[in-house]
Amino acid sequence: MTFFGHFHAALWRYTFSRPAFRIGRMSLQKNINAPKTSAVPALAMQPDAWDRQSFWQFADKAKAATEALAEQKMKVLPQLPVEALRQFCIQYRFFTIDYISDLALLLVKLPFGGLRSLLSQILAEELGEGDAARAHPEIYDRFLASIGVKSEQIELRLPANRTILSELTAEMSRRSPAFGVGLRGMGGECLCQTYLSVMFEHLRAHPYMREHADDIDWEFWTIHTGEEDIIHGELTRQAIDDYLRQDPSVLPDLASGYERSITAWNLFWENIFDAYASRPRSVS
Ligand SMILES: [Fe+2]
User: Fold this and answer.
1) What's the CA-to-centroid distance between 51 and ligand 1, angstroms?
2) Residues 6+ apart with CB under 8 A from 252
3) What is the pTM of this model?
4) Can you list the domains of the chain with their CATH numbers?
5) For 191, which DSSP code?
6) How many whole angstroms from 26 Cα to the centroid of ligand 1?
7) From CA 143, how far away is CA 13, in angstroms rounded?
């Protein structure tokens, strides 16, 4: 399936009503009560049809669609039993952990230049810049502990999401640097912040969170939903644009990696919602 085909199919699974997004001949239509398979044929974007402008237009639409999707899905959070909410939050920690090692793999592959330098700075921040206690997974774990997650629960991950993340790591190793930029450089910085901002908004509206707000360690959320992460996103976008200007031939691979990132990200969350926001599922 094509870039747009994958993304279209991924979005189609979700049920919310908004006007269709249109980019040229492409449709990212989302309808309430839509069937799980695409009713609108996904048209192929030929690899040589991409240019920087159409790519960034699509990235903007993807970001808006991600935000709308998150709004729709995350609004259930305040109604979850607190234990389900804890399980829900645990699952995200595995994304942050694997994102760090995938970013390191990407750095190995990239040529010297602005993008490599910027992503190395982001990686250093993720790892606490020399202070292991400041590594973002550590900060996230402090948040989890502060909402009552027990230490024995913290390694329980959904098998389906373990598979998704390990496939991304394998692809990062196997595929081209440009694919890796789309997979982790774009997705991590451009989609993640949007999603987390919406998640945070609904998470803190939960009665347990409100009641215990003063005792909860919110640092992870202030880092990832605030200005710092928005600036990261903007800098990353600029650096990726420069990377594309230097070698426009990498654009199809980059777009393909971004496609993969969006579908993986949506599926990752869909699995979490299925497990904890609708019906129970086993973890290992
Ligand atoms: Fe982070």
Assistant:
1) 30
2) 47, 48, 50
3) 0.81
4) 62-276 (1.20.910.10)
5) I
6) 33
7) 31
- Write out the two tokens for 21: 């997004």
For β-strands 22-23 and 26-27, DSSP reports them as: antiparallel
Ion ligand 1 — residues with CB < 5 Å: 136
Beta bridge partners of 27: 22
Pull the structure tokens for residue 54: 């159409």
Distances in Å between the Cα of 170 and the Cα atoms of 100, 119, 155, 222, 269 are 14, 20, 21, 31, 20
Q: In which residue ranges of the chain is pLDDT below 50? A: 1-44, 280-282, 284
CA of 34 to the centre of ligand 1 (A): 34
pLDDT in tens, 230-264: 788 888 999 999 999 999 999 999 999 998 998 89
Residue 215, phi-psi category: left (phi > 0), alpha (psi -120 to 50), beta (remainder): alpha
